[in-house]
């Protein structure tokens, strides 16, 4: 291919890519996309702390050659986790993958008759290839960095949701990505809502083994066409040995709306770029982030609210609670293009420190080129108030019960913005059981 590699990888090699392409028999346009991404992957070095975006996130102990492209499954383990988000929920469809290979795919007959498509990437590529071609990698740039290029070159599975014009999907759809010990997940989520469509999608990740090493290098692309409405939930709950690298972007068109809820609970280290592009006049987005860290977890989220059209509204609220020696990094940017007049943008990050040695970094920012806008941002970091604990103990709470109640109360503002009850309950319970008693 005539590419000079800056960072060689014995496992994610040209031969490995050729093997993947030969096995999948994909259309020429997708093969070309993979090969172009692989060239970028070879040319780019892994990010370092010399770069502004990475200066607070150290990946020097990450070694790509500890992992390899996902192999075909020889067997599927019994008793796989069911996920946390769907307790008591009547689903319209469900897709489950294990180690980046789809193991089950279901969609109700009613939704099929309405033209809704929900399934694995491979099956939807076969039935709706042109729709995928018009959207795949049009939101997330496969040449952004080494990880986005790695993903685009080697991804093997994922979920695709396509909702035709004017169709309202009343029941939530669920996608569950599971990882075994030492596994690699390169899943790609692609959601396309045509004009006037509505849907709710619950997307979550989990590890079968809580401590074994693993790597997720994924992408999420959400296309919300004019007057469509998408409620999207993304719960990251990988095991504590997993390196999690992800690029996620929503593209919201004229008078469309997206509500995006992020739950960040798992992984050893996470580095996530989450962008929303408001590309049509009157577009709206609301993003709710819930982060809880413990041990030596490191979670870094870089959010971008990009106002590209007039009369758009964006509202980002991220809250994090930390204990032990864990760390979070949140970098938020509201960017307003010159023609995006009458913009209303808001971002906020609040952090609650439960122990002395945890650390939260908040870096909000504004980049405004229009002159008729209202953009505000804020960030707070503080510890649990001992007076609040004392007040609760006077009313019969133990110290641990009091701290748990304070932590849940801290997140309540975000929970109140989440319309799906099962998601509110799952996040609340998952956080409550992690909070430990401290003197």
UniProtKB/TrEMBL annotation:
NCBIfam families: sufD. Residues 184-410 form the SUF system FeS cluster assembly SufBD core domain. InterPro entries: Fe-S_cluster_assembly_SufBD (IPR055346), SUF_FeS_clus_asmbl_SufBD_core (IPR000825), SUF_FeS_clus_asmbl_SufBD_sf (IPR037284), SUF_FeS_clus_asmbl_SufD (IPR011542), SufBD_N (IPR045595). It comes from Blastopirellula retiformator. This is FeS cluster assembly protein SufB. Residues 24-173 form the SUF system FeS cluster assembly SufBD N-terminal domain. The gene is sufB_2. It holds the Pfam family SUFBD_core. One of its GO terms (biological process) is iron-sulfur cluster assembly. Belongs to the iron-sulfur cluster assembly SufBD family.
